[in-house]
Design brief:
The complex is a heterodimer of chains A (424) and B (664). Chain A has helices spanning 2-6, 14-35, 49-69, 72-96, 117-133, 143-161, 166-171, 176-181, 186-205, 208-225, 230-257, 260-270, 281-291, 304-307, 320-351, 356-380, 398-416, and strands at 98-100, 103-108, 114-115. With 424 residues, chain A is mainly α. Chain A folds into 2 domains: 2-183 and 275-416, no CATH class; 191-257. With 664 residues, chain B is α+β, with helices and mostly antiparallel strands. Chain B is elongated. The chains are: A mainly alpha (424), B alpha+beta (664). Chains A and B meet through helix 8, helix 13, helix 14, helix 15 and helix 16 of A and helix 1 and helix 2 of B.
Chain lengths: 424, 664
């Protein structure tokens, strides 16, 4: 206690804070460049997106400092309450929500602001998951614990899917990394990887006999190679069965269940059909913006693709276009490097915790940030279907920025207290 | 720390791998693949064309024949429209609300953000009244736009006209012409299109995704300025041209006057004509329709597209060829009983007049048919009756050297060749060996299957004036401020008759005016040498033809005048020619001692009855190759062949590349 009174910032992980500030600064500058209009030259103009974002960053920093002032143990104790509030908000948004771009994801607030509960659901879920898994005698390898942990994750997912916001829903699947770190069988990760690969192959090759044949041949080959290991044989046979079932259901879903526009989105990413003027317009313009940046970029505020509105949603989902176009490959490396440094630093922080709660929470934060980065940037360069999720700390949007700030500063707070008592 | 501690490496490894995948993809699209930079430039760069001013055309003394004038259009930018008094606006433009809505809908369809034309070529009064009130009509603007303007309304067929390019021209122009561009469609405007049009400039602007301009691309590094079209100095003398058009008003016919020492065409009159200003401006299409339906075909360029039997005006040519071939000498005489007997045909002299004993000069002066029938018969029979066709072919070749039966390569599109029959024509009409000199005897006096354009007739006079050579007749004297003259116009074209043979013929031609058939048109103090002609016309009164040059020493002007249905050459064509010559040499015209005054000719109306005229035209259509050329030119007016067509105008194109740096 006496340590904490010496300074609010005692034991704060400054590297994380610096990366956080750097990403926020890149965000404000990129939004400024994307929507800059010489008629409104002031940076603190509340009518413009960058003016608003600037205010959000200041609010976020104040909020971050406030979190550092909290007692760490509150965080664990409040986890169920925060989770419950979020769930209530997610239910509320389905009733009173404002529909923006096809998603009923926003609760209007006084002063023209609006709240996106799904953003806050991410850290709320991380908190409750950490709280549950850090409990005594809880092991994810046990069916009951695994089911409860999965339930904590699935409940908000289902509510968000009802909005329907597929992007945010998928974000929760990244929490699989947390479960894996806490002991879940690696088969789940492998299976997830295989699912993604087979999903792409099934739709792209459109050749069921070849794919199913290959699965069978490879399975038999591995079984023959390790024929002494009976346990492996069983696992492989079950796995092969699951994979074949998966392939067949993907094929069935794609041809019989999915609606035309949903197929289109998938087709564009997989390059099955190209339609640069219709549904593929956004991604195509985004690729042009980033690709035209070359090595060093066109220079700050010199990007024609973003400045002249060829790229849609340029300050939110497609904000990375500004970075790619105006700062080129060099800028892309810096931004991706910062994110990689951030998530690896969070893993490092996680592993130095004595408290399982802090560690599990940290893995949740790393997974969610990482998932956002890969999906968002992958989308702007056309290797991931365009599902609208923001680029953490850079994309325009108060809910997203505040949610990631709270998420990160709770972690920093927990970490600064790593030498203290273990809560829960 | 727990048992799954090492799993952090696997999770970290997955994170690093996926980030590297993203970086790899970024490396590919940002560094390796060049297409995206190209697409980005294509998105944001818009080229705006700067239109050069079309070159003006001047007369030989620097007076303007055609120049550019600014007219004002109203354009509309639909997005900028705010509510305003539509009714008042419609009233100002004198259109109704339906028309207003129609035009606005068309503009909206074209673009919301860029201006579309709304009303073209306002009258000056309307522009003045509208200009003050434009602020009441947001979204509408007035702006200037150049059109062709003809201050003296002369030389319509010579200058030709311009019009918007059609799809055919656009696709053949290799990207030069775009929708809405103007191109020369006929006359000099067409022939010199590549020179007159100049060179478009390009301004590269940045635009946003809605097409709004956002400033200059790359600070104008790739912009080019428009190069104005070159000025053309024509060979026309505007005063002479105006007089010629006045003398020929209410008559059908042509005047072509050439400066023998250069080949420059001093006057190029084709009537009926029209005011070239009718084909620009607001009522262009209505006027165009009216003119192209006019039965007297004002668009026909008669000096080069109509052909007439030269009649007696052909006689000097016959005499020259016969002397060169050694068939006759100037002293050869003939005793004219008032007719000539060829085979079993008896050809009357004009009015059955008995000329008695005539030599070459007096035969020309008195236009004795008998003498020239005799000359022609001797020419065709000189190898014996069995070799009629080879003698004929040799005669034909000699005539062709004077420019008959072929094009003179005038720098104007649509030139006709006239008619000069080949031996094979008579082989077909009769049968091989079935025709004699007597069969084709009328050729000797310029009748029969012979046709010459007024340009060809004038060029023959220039050749006689020069004693045996001509410069290619041309309409454009020099190009640009540097006064460049095409090389082909400085070369002499010899016609194969020695200079010594010309004097006796010229003696005869002087006598024609001094005391012969054209004596009434003699200009006191000017020695003019000429020849009347009366071109047979089986469907109406004969055409009046007169050819001449003057003065005899150091000739300044060679001229051919054709007045359709004018009867004898002496009655209409000769006086008109004499006034032209006098005007050119003295800059004024006087009443002749014989009493004939210019006013009589200016005021006379010789327009043939429409039905008679149409019948003549129909007959011509069957016989006349020039008629075909004319049809071609009208077809072309609708489906213009590219002026840059290399086969058509190699000289101009090559020339262009020599004078305009950087062109091609």
């Amino acid at each position: 206690m006496s340590n904490q009174q010496r300074s609010f910032f005692f034991n704060v992980d400054w590297l994380t804070v610096l990366i956080y500030l750097a990403l926020c600064a890149i965000g404000v500058l990129s939004i400024h460049s994307a929507v800059f209009d010489p008629k409104n030259a002031s940076i603190v103009d509340l009518d413009t997106n960058y003016g608003k974002q600037f205010v959000f960053v200041i609010v976020a920093i104040v909020l971050g400092i406030f979190i550092l002032l909290l007692e760490s143990r509150f965080l664990s104790a409040l986890a169920p309450a925060i989770y419950t509030i979020t769930i209530v908000l997610l239910l509320l948004v389905l009733v009173v929500g404002r529909n923006v771009g096809g998603n009923q994801a926003w609760i209007p607030l006084p002063g023209g602001f609006r709240l996106q509960p799904s953003e806050f659901a991410k850290f709320a879920t991380c908190l409750l998951l950490a709280r549950y898994l850090s409990g005594t005698n809880i092991k994810v390898t046990e069916i009951k614990s695994f089911a409860i942990a999965a339930g904590i994750i699935f409940f908000p997912m289902i509510l968000i899917l009802l909005q329907p916001d597929a992007g945010s829903t998928l974000v929760f699947s990244s929490l699989l990394f947390v479960l894996y770190r806490e002991g879940l069988s690696p088969y789940f990760l492998i299976l997830e990887g295989l699912f993604i690969t087979l999903f792409v192959l099934t739709l792209k090759l459109n050749n069921l006999p070849l794919i199913i044949g290959s699965i069978i041949v490879i399975t038999i080959a591995i079984i023959l190679l390790f024929r002494r290991n009976r346990k492996l044989m069983t696992t492989l046979l079950i796995g092969a069965g699951i994979l074949i079932t998966f392939v067949l259901s993907v094929q069935f879903l794609y041809t019989k269940v999915l609606k035309h526009h949903q197929k289109e989105r998938i087709d564009i990413v997989l390059g099955i059909e190209s339609d640069p003027h219709g549904k593929g317009y956004n991604v195509n313009q985004s690729k042009i913006a980033i690709g035209s940046g070359k090595l060093w970029g066109k220079g700050y505020m010199q990007g024609t693709q973003t400045k002249y509105k060829f790229v849609p949603e340029q300050s939110t989902d497609f904000i990375f276009c500004t970075v790619g176009e105006e700062f080129g490959f060099a800028g892309s490396v810096v931004v991706l490097g910062l994110y990689l440094l951030l998530v690896l630093r969070i893993i490092y922080i996680a592993e130095r915790q004595r408290s399982p709660f802090s560690r599990i929470y940290a893995y949740g934060v790393a997974s969610i940030i990482f998932f956002h980065v890969v999906i968002n940037i992958g989308m702007t360069i056309g290797i991931v279907p365009s599902i609208g999720i923001p680029l953490p700390l850079i994309s325009y949007g108060g809910s997203s920025l505040l949610s990631f700030t709270v998420m990160l500063f709770i972690l920093i707070k927990l970490d600064s207290n790593r030498m203290g008592m273990i809560y829960a | 720390m727990n048992q799954y501690f090492e799993r952090r490496y696997i999770i970290g490894g997955i994170f690093i791998t996926l980030i590297l995948v993203l970086l790899g993809r970024l490396f590919y699209i940002q560094i390796i693949d060049d297409r995206y930079a190209y697409y980005a430039a294509k998105n944001a760069k818009r080229q705006f064309i700067l239109y050069p001013a079309r070159g003006p055309i001047l007369d030989r003394n620097g007076k303007t024949l055609v120049t550019n004038e600014l007219v004002y259009d109203v354009s509309v930018t639909p997005k900028e429209i705010k509510p305003f008094d539509t009714l008042e606006f419609c009233k100002l433009l004198s259109i109704d609300k339906t028309e207003f809505d129609k035009r606005l809908a068309k503009a909206r369809k074209y673009s919301q953000n860029t201006p579309s034309p709304f009303e073209k070529q306002l009258s000056p009064q309307l522009y003045a009244s509208l200009q003050e009130r434009m602020s009441e009509f947001p979204g509408f603007r007035t702006g200037p736009h150049p059109i062709r303007s003809y201050p003296d309304s002369v030389a319509a067929q010579f200058l030709g006209y311009i019009g918007e390019v059609n799809d055919n021209v656009i696709s053949k122009s290799g990207g030069y012409y775009h929708l809405g561009d103007y191109i020369g469609i006929s006359g000099v405007e067409k022939a010199y299109e590549p020179i007159l049009r100049g060179q478009k400039g390009i301004r590269n602007m940045l635009v946003d995704s809605r097409g709004e301009q956002k400033g200059s691309y790359a600070n104008g590094a790739f912009d080019t300025l428009a190069v104005p079209g070159e000025k053309l100095t024509s060979s026309l003398d505007i005063k002479l041209q105006k007089l010629g058009e006045k003398l020929m008003q209410n008559k059908v016919g042509s005047i072509v006057a050439i400066e023998p020492s250069t080949g420059e065409i001093l006057a190029f009159v084709s009537t009926p004509s029209y005011d070239p200003n009718l084909l620009v401006g607001h009522d262009r299409s209505a006027n165009y329709g009216k003119l192209s339906n006019d039965p007297y075909v004002p668009f026909l360029v008669r000096p080069i597209q109509a052909s007439y039997p030269p009649g007696s005006s052909f006689k000097p040519l016959s005499a020259l060829i016969a002397m060169q071939e050694g068939i006759i000498t100037p002293q050869t005489t003939y005793n004219c009983p008032g007719y000539y007997v060829a085979g079993n045909r008896r050809i009357a002299c004009f009015h059955n007049e008995r000329h008695g004993t005539v030599n070459l000069a007096s035969a020309v002066a008195e236009s004795c048919n008998g003498y020239f029938d005799m000359v022609f018969e001797k020419l065709i029979n000189r190898l014996g009756a069995k070799q009629t066709d080879s003698a004929f072919t040799s005669w034909r070749n000699n005539v062709a050297k004077f420019g008959l039966g072929g094009k003179l390569d005038l720098d104007l599109p649509g030139e006709g060749t006239g008619l000069l029959p080949k031996a094979s024509l008579y082989d077909k009409m009769y049968h091989k060996g079935g025709w004699r000199s007597s069969t084709v005897i009328s050729l000797g006096i310029g009748q029969g299957e012979l046709g010459a354009t007024p340009l060809q007739l004038a060029n023959i006079e220039a050749t006689i004036a020069n004693h045996g050579f001509y410069y290619k007749p041309h309409l454009i004297k020099s190009i640009g401020d540097r006064q460049i003259i095409k090389k082909e116009y400085t070369e002499k074209n010899y016609v194969g008759v020695d200079a010594q043979y010309f004097e006796p013929v010229i003696d005869g031609m002087q006598a024609v005016v001094d005391r012969g058939t054209a004596a009434a048109s003699k200009i006191p103090g000017i020695i003019m040498c000429g020849k009347t002609g009366t071109a047979d016309n089986s469907h109406g009164q004969a055409h009046s033809v007169f050819v001449a040059f003057a003065p005899r020493e150091n000739p300044k002007i060679a001229i051919a005048v054709v007045v359709e249905n004018g009867g004898q050459g002496s009655s209409w064509a000769a006086p008109i020619a004499s006034f032209m010559v006098e005007k050119y040499l003295r800059d004024s015209i006087t009443t002749r001692p014989s009493g004939i005054s210019p006013e009589k000719y200016i005021n006379a109306n010789l327009m043939p009855d429409i039905n008679v005229y149409i019948n003549q035209q129909k007959r011509r259509a069957r016989l006349d190759s020039a008629r075909r050329a004319r049809t071609d030119s009208i077809k072309k007016a609708q489906a213009i062949k590219s002026a840059t067509n290399k086969n058509k105008k190699p000289a101009i194109t090559n020339y262009l590349s020599a004078i305009i740096p950087g062109k091609r």
